[in-house]
Amino acid sequence: MTNIEELVKQQAEVHGTTRESLMPILQAVIRSERFLSEDAMVAIARELDISTADVFGTASFYTFMDTTPKGKNIIRVCKTITCHMKGKDAVIGALEDLLKIKLGENTSDGKFSLLQANCLGWCHKGPVMLINDEVHPEVTPESAVEVIQGYLKQK
Amino acid sequence: MENKIKKVDLIFEQVDYLEILDRSFKRTQDEIILDIIDSGLRGRGGAGFPTGLKWKFAKNEEADQKYVICNADEGEPGTFKDREILTQVPEKVLGGMALCGKSTGASRGYIYLRGEYNFLLPQLNAAIDKFHEDLKNMNFDFTIEIKSGSGAYVCGEETALMESMEGKRGEPRNKPPFPTTSGYLGKPTSVNNVETLVFALMIAKEGPTKFKEMGTFDSRGSKVFSVSGDTPKAGIYELELGMSLEDFVNEFGDGDTKAVQIGGASGFCVARKHFKETVIGFEGIPTGGSMMLFNSTRSMYNILNDYLEFFEEESCGQCTPCRVGCQQLLKGIEAVKKGNRPPSYLDELQKLSETMKIASKCGLGQSAPNPFNSIINNFREEIIY
Amino acid sequence: MSKYKVNLKINNLNVSVDEGTTILEAARQLNFKIPTLCHHDDLCVAGNCRVCVVEQVGNRLLPAACATPVSEGMEVLTNSMKVRQARKNIIELLLSEHNADCTKCFKSGYCELQEVANEYRTGDHVYLDVKNLNPIDISSPSIEKDDSKCIRCQRCVRTCTELQAVSALAVTHKGKDMKISTFLDKPMNDVVCTNCGQCINRCPTASLVERNYIDQVFDAIYDPKKFVVVQTAPATRVAISEEFGMGPNRSTGKMVAALRRLGFDKVLDTDFTADLTIMEEGTELLTRLKEALVDGKDVALPMMTSCSPGWIKFQEHIFPDMLDNLSTCKSPQQMFGPLAKTYYAEKINKNPADMVVVSIMPCTAKKYEADRPEMRGSGYKDVDFVLTTRELGRMIHQAGIDFEKLDDEKYDSILGQSTGAAVIFGNTGGVMEAALRTAYEIVTGREVPFANLNIKPVRGMEGIKEAAVKIKDVKPEWSFLEGVELKVAIAHGLSNAKELMNRIKDGSANYHFIEVMGCPGGCIGGGGQPIPTNMEIRKKRAAAIYDEDEKMVIRKSHQNPEVEEIYKSYLHKPLGHRSHDLLHTHYTPRKRY
Q1: Are residues C136 and C73 in the same domain?
Q2: Residue from C52, C66, C160, C523 carrying the catalytic annotation
């Protein structure tokens, strides 16, 4: 069994193999792999005995369930209205310069993906960014860069 | 000058929720529900359905299993109060769910938490574990589990939320049947907003009178507001309902407020000239709590553009008016701005938005044209030129 | 359960209907037609196109008539100003994302979007163009998928899931990007698609159509070097009339006449090889039973029919561990091909290299089947082109032939004679009935014990049918079957097939012989049959098939003189050496996920 098959099997043991368990299993794979590979979706389809198209159709509905490879850390900058008003574009610009990638891309070392997201629920403290599940409200271009540099040092 | 903004402290007040539950569990289902009905509490997510009635419908259904769902898929741009409630008083939310479970005859509860709030999971799960212990001591059979979302605004719509919980695409269902008849896994289900559940618990604590005496005839009680945009006081405030927008702007504005978007991206934009006569509440402009202030430096075109882009992406895509309508509204204002369509094309789009409002399958499509209409009506020249 | 009556008013007329009836159905009872696109009688309610919105007095919103049950005292207006405005807007929205290249579109004249747009006289590009002109997916030899024509009604997805239990198609993405797609947007030929074409039958536009080979067939016909023969499947002869507005009708003779006028050199009949299939498959069944009951061998039972290529590919994907249960017989189409290019070519003294074999099929999976590498028993591609009933209709229209006025003509000989047993192959249960008529008689020397040879228990539209035939007083050489109760089952539509397979796998059901047809109703409901389809239409086609059977002189496959002749002079015996080379095949396990 490949690692991903083992992960899926183990998650199916935790969550069960009925259709309701699809979301938590997809989420667990995302947590571990950051995206859903073809192999992962096939393994999930097999475990739940549903079609692969169904797995893909469901996953592709949800913004946080990427089906193309993503970096180890996913940066999501909120783009909705107040964060826009409070300068998310400058934050994204600073991160693009730091990471030498454009919005939507992954760094070549596979450490980061830079994405935008719809409203993250911090409108009073915009701009806000999520790194994986961690929130960073009220970021400036400078503080955003510092946060990412912190991640760079960690690993 | 008298301050017409009345701050209230029901939601975030620390209470002995176990004592409230203990007292409530000794009452009959009908007694609890009657108090909720009597209080006039309406859903705090935005749609405003009378909470007591919803519980009564669920209670009256015969079923081997019923469910309570706490809708914590707070995705409406400009709204962030549920996150704060879940952070500060999670046990009151759980208490509200148990109260709803008792009233409707449900032994299982779920919190559908948006994926953007995953960082809340450790503390919420800890609160749930403690809660289960407490309930066990009280001999009350009710368990709560968290189901996570993964980034889909439309899952805040209750039937889409249940589809998502069932492991499917979050596409709203046809109604009827309503969730209280056939909800999660086809069982009677009452879906309540986070804030609504806390108010229900507080009404059980205080009785209906205190709540009923606040607010107006249509909008009883208080409400937690999420204030953002061009304001020196961005944040969360529990205020008595029924104030005018003018009062609100006097309190929260930066002195240069040109418009307020009430109710988030799916709400209405009110221009300065209408502040005075606009009541914030179900008789005026209802809101799930989102109040976004814009000052005169803001381009209403950009704001509308942002809202429409949001809907174009967040529509589930299944029904025609919403899927294609949202794209047409967005592309339409771009075309008018660029001069590729005459200004009169906006009138054509307003007819379209009427169709979206009445013919879309769910609340998302029905409300997506609200910012379009209200901004075109108030700031037409900013869209054209 | 409960049959409470609900009283309501539609367009100010009173109507009383059963509780649970939708507004759409109630309006039909009053003869008001409400336009629909996502609704289909064969499928569950969707309520997503919104074309069927109506006004309900007192309701601010316009409910979808297809998805809203009636309630007591309801007042509905199906054509109010509000409704007309909304409906027009919705049609215009659909047109703004639709590639309306109507004059060159295969579905023009049959397109449901075109029909409602015509009714409402819309189409002057009120809204901005938001269509996506992605390349058309022509990877599959059976099905073309053109997303630029798609209106996201999801009928295809519901068909693939509910009727066929395949789910090769799914709704993917959301918002403006929402579309109908496959796993990871792979080409149709690379996914778990059975090519059944049921999605095509229900697609309201030309987003899903068959791969169309009309021009190639005309090219062959007009090529003087080519000798072009055509074979026609049983189910085509009761449905081709629908392409000419004549409803489901027996029109074998007219179809033969039309094919001759189109210029085919010989007009032959797949029914001939259907009879041959019965000889081969019947013998195979009796052989397997003997091996199991007498020799104690571990043979795969129940034996399962192999005429339906959609079913075959389904089994290869979904139950690859049960491929040994499938009969090794090729389908009648693929028995015809190699015989045409060997036996028949010799008889008429033609070089098989110069022959073109065309089939007219109620099926899209047959196109894929003809392309399979195994299907070259003659040394050539056995069947060169497969056309659907719809494509034949189109050819007849193009050639300006007035189908309705044609006089009946007869098939050419040889490879043109058939029996009533062959024509019922077109219906669910038909292969089973034909097999029983022959096998019972071979074993006992007597006709099957059913009045007028009509084996009623295997007929009808029930999803899974079961029957048992007690075998008594057998001929001496079949003594091992004395007293055996032959148990059979029949499934049609792949979700029924899946259910039946699961019952067999878990041991809850036991049979000797199983007939499966991939499409609802069998071939008469095939993916290549005229559009629209629904239960009423399928029942009419099925009745026409049984009618055709009853009117045949010979109604048992083993009595077909041409079949007797081919065994005498060429094949020698069923399951013989030549049969093995030309008429039998093997199967390939494929991935389920």
Answers
A1: no
A2: C523
